[in-house]
Description:
Blueprint (H helix, E strand, L loop, with lengths): L3 H8 L8 H11 L3 E5 L4 E5 L5 E2 L16 H5 L11 E5 L1
Antiparallel strand pairs: 1-2, 1-4, 2-3
Helix pairs in contact: 1-2
Amino acid sequence: MFTLEDIELAHGKIKSGAEFPKYIQEIKGLGVTAFDTCVTDSHTIYFGKNGFQATPKPQYDAMTIANKSDKDRFRHLPHKPSSNFFKNKAMF
């Protein structure tokens, strides 16, 4: 089964978005079957077979998330990381 060190090593090879598919194939080869990433603090849970999970520490302090979005206000904000919650589940 994979370790966090294996995933970090694979991630460290990415130099551009064009290399992302190769990264996905590499972690798939390690045994990663899916992953969830939470934008509030950028923590990711990597899933493997038989319920195996590995979770590195969050990369950022948790951001406050608004209960209701305001698209007009959002459109006028400068392009900075937003505090909107986003959950990505990539399944292989």
